[in-house]
Description:
The chain is of the alpha+beta class. Helix content is 31%, strand content 24%. The chain has helices at 2-13, 18-48, 52-56, 59-67, 72-83, 87-92, 121-136; strands at 95-103, 106-113, 142-146, 184-190, 200-205, 208-215, 218-223, 237-239, 242-244, 251-253, 272-275, 278-284. The protein starts with a helix and ends in a 5-residue tail after the last strand.
Amino acid sequence: AAARLVDLTTTLAEHPDPAVGGQVAEVLRSVDVLHRAGLRRLGKLLRKAGLERRALEDPEVALLFELYELTDEGERARAAAVLADVIPYIESHGGRLTIVAAEWGDVTVRLSGACAGCQGSTATLRHVVEGALREGLPDFDRLIVEPSPAGHGHDHGHGRGQVPEAATPGFVPLASIGPRTPRISWVRAASPAEVPPGTLLGVDLHGVPVLLANVEGELYAYEDRCAGTPFPLADGRLDGDALVCPWHGCRYDLRTGRRRDTEGAPLAILPIAIAGADIRIGMVEGRPG
C-alpha cells in the first residue's frame, strides 16, 4: 500500500497538465494539515498518559508518525527548513541561531554570539524566528528561548547560524508534495530616520500594509491591521511601549504584538532588519497581498 501511494502521488503530481498537478498537490497538503493536527493532539495525549514510547513501538503507528514527520528528528528538520531563510538576518547582527529541539508544535532555540544578552535579542527572536515559524509551519504552537551558555554571549563576532541538517524523510511526507517552505525576500520599507523613537509609520509593500514602530530605539514590524480586522493601526496612539487601536481601543504590546487589555489574537509579526540606511522587511514570496 505504501509503495502504491508513492507511485500514485508521483504520477499525478507529474501530470502533463499543470493544473492537475497543482490540484493534486493542494489536495495532499489539505489532507496533511487535517491529519497532522489530529496526530499531533494524539501524540500529546499519549505522552501525557505515559504511553508514547509504547505506542511508537508498534511498527504501523511508528510509520504513521514518520509519514507526518512527527518524530523528534522530523520536527527539527521541518523547523530547520523554515528557518534557513532567516539565518542571514541573525548573522547580520553577529548572532548564531541553534535549534535545540522541536516537538509537538513547540520549537526551542538558542541565540548566541553578539545577539545574546543584547536588548534586541527578544525582538530578533520574536519578529524573525517566530514570524517565520508561524508562516512556514501551520501547526507551530510556541517558541521557547533557551538561555545562551555562559561565556558565549556578546563576542561581537560574525558567527554562522547553526541549523541542523535536514533529516532524510522516513517515507513520503505528504507535506513535501509541492512547495511548503516559505522563501523570504527582504524589501526596503523606509529609513530609520523616518521612524524616530516614539513614532509609528504605515507603508505599503507590494500590496501588504506594514506598520513600523520605534519603541525606545528598537524597531518592530507588524501587518498594519488590528488583529482579525482590516482596520489599519498607523493612526493609533502610543502609550509607552503599548499601541492603542484607533478603532476599537485595543491595547497591544509593541515588543511582542500580544494583547494587553484582554485575551485575543496578537498582531501579525513581520521580520525586520536594518541594513545601512534601510529598514528592510522580510516578505514571504507568493503570499497574497
